[in-house]
Amino acid sequence: MAAGSQIAEAGFMPSVVQNKAVWNDNYDWKQVGDEWSKSWGGPQMQWYGSLLPRIHAFLPAQTILEIAPGFGRWTQFLKDQCASLIVVDLSEQCIQACQERFADVSHIAYHVNDGKSLDMVADESIDFAFSFDSLVHVEDDVIQAHISQLATKLRGNGVAFIHHANLGEYPYYQRISKYPKVRRLLRALRVIEKDTHWRAFTVTAARVARHAADNHLRCISQEKIPWGTKRALIDCMSVIVREDSDWPTDNQVLSNPEFKQEKRNVAQLARLYGAPLKK
């Protein structure tokens, strides 16, 4: 069981301190994060089959900010889509790994932060901000902090694509987290999901949209999806822009339970067209 899942089983909320302990101190990065893409057929298939179709309208971009890159699973693709790439992570180990992995790439700047701050990023300098499969493990205060700073970091028509939790739409998960025996019984009876993948209890798509509005930003799309779950749409991908940008005004919200079928389809294509997976 992964370190994050162990903490989730114990009922701990994913605080900044817990995140640093997991991803900097305890997690075994021997597969450099590629293990989380295996069900798509690997990072390349996930990028080209699932992620790029969602963000292609925003790329290439002059300056890209990647929040929480881990060991560079998406950095390897983002670096080829910009003239300047800034990566920020609370894990010194992750930043060091990225520096080593992309040592021959001259247009990447690396920063270790406190899990919330983007002070190292110049105001109105970012054309595209990206975070995927990382900020799902942070609570509402951290999401709010990032959004409030993106309001000043994005250029006029800059765009942020943020993958975050939506578990807060199912508040009973937080209530039963205090009762392990009840939680195990409800899982056995299939009343609740077997695993919520250490998602944050306090984050919802609607709250993210409100945080954006409170900071003179707006969501122009939000896609709520399952993540290893049968029915619950515990994740969301939000596209956020400045309210004074040229992007459309209305927020298009999609509940997409078919995301898991998309993943299966991409994995099936990977067997025909994907590169061999590393063991």
Molecular structure report:
This protein is 35% helix and 21% strand. With 279 residues, it is an alpha/beta fold. It has a single domain, classed as 3-Layer(aba) Sandwich (Rossmann fold), CATH 3.40.50.150. The chain has an eight-stranded mixed sheet with strand order 3-2-1-4-5-7-6-8, sandwiched between helices. The longest helix has 15 residues, at 259-273.
Number of strands: 8
Query: Cα distance, first to last residue?
Result: 18 Å
**Which strand-content bin applies to the residues?**
15-25%
The largest β sheet comes out as:
8 strands, mixed
CATH topology: Rossmann fold
Oligomer state of the chains in this structure: single chain
- Strand order in space, largest sheet: 3-2-1-4-5-7-6-8
Shape: globular
Counting H and I runs of at least 4 residues, what is the number of helices?
Answer: 10
| Poorly predicted ranges | none
Which architecture would the CATH scheme give at its second level? 3-Layer(aba) Sandwich
How large is the radius of gyration?
18 Å
> What proportion of the residues is helical, as a percent range?
25-40%
Order of helices and strands: HHHEHEHEEHEHHHEEEH
Q: Taking all residues together, what is the mean pLDDT?
A: 93
CATH class label:
Alpha Beta
Fold blueprint:
Blueprint: H1 3-9, H2 16-26, H3 43-55, E1 61-67, H4 75-78, E2 82-89, H5 92-101, E3 108-112, E4 126-131, H6 140-153, E5 154-165, H7 172-176, H8 180-188, H9 205-214, E6 217-225, E7 235-242, E8 252-255, H10 259-273
Parallel strand pairs: 1-2, 1-4, 2-3, 4-5, 6-8
Antiparallel strand pairs: 5-7, 6-7
Helix pairs in contact: 3-10, 6-9
